[in-house]
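Narrative of accomplishments. A recurring question from our advisory board has been how the design workflow behaves on a single, concrete structure rather than in aggregate. To address it, we present the structure tokens for one chain from the evaluation set, followed by the sequence designed for it. No filtering or post-editing was applied between the two.
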């Protein structure tokens, strides 16, 4: 059993998701929003956020994994599961659990832009800006976090702890 210290409570997360949902609803008023959830981590945040958005929402899911060695600067990611639907001409928002180095998202956003959406935005629950090596424009952020290993609310350590209702840090014993 790992030692996990809570850093953001369930209550604070719920409050922040409500705020972001209201902001998105206002900024996209009169439009339809197509949310793309990045599996697996983004799924928890996507569902909670979707419930707090009052404009019409559609959903799709995508799964990506890093290609080759972590340190390569190519930033190439492999699509493990592609979208079910076309995004051409739609207002698209990618929903992620965390932007860390930015490697995954910089590649993904570039690839999605080539599919000609009407607009393309990025919403992440967590941002670790101190770790950025690849530039990514983030439109909506839940919380900025320090350079620690985070678990919970979709984020895993060896596939565990995604189901924690709070955001925690793994602390060395
Ligand atoms: P990137 O470095 O921005 O490309 O992030 C790649 C992926 O690494 C994220 O989508 C997360 O799945 C994972 N990741 C980054 N930081 C953490 C963390 O602190 N805990 C758990 N997963 C993380
Ligand atoms: Mg992820």
């Amino acid at each position: 059993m790992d030692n996990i210290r809570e850093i953001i409570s369930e209550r604070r997360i719920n409050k922040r998701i409500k705020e972001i949902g209201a902001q998105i609803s206002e900024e996209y008023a009169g439009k339809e929003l197509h949310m793309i959830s990045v599996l697996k981590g983004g799924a928890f945040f996507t569902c909670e956020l979707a419930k707090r958005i009052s404009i019409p929402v559609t959903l799709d899911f995508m799964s990506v994994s890093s290609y080759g060695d972590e340190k390569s600067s190519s930033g190439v990611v492999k699509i493990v599961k592609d979208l079910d639907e076309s995004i051409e001409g739609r207002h698209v928002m990618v929903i992620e659990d965390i932007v860390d180095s930015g490697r995954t998202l910089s590649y993904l956003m570039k690839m999605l832009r080539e599919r000609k959406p009407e607009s393309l935005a990025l919403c992440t629950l967590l941002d670790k800006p101190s770790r950025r090596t690849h530039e990514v424009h983030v439109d909506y952020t839940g919380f900025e976090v320090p350079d620690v290993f985070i678990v919970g609310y979709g984020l895993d350590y060896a596939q565990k702890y995604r189901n924690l209702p709070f955001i925690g840090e793994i602390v060395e014993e």
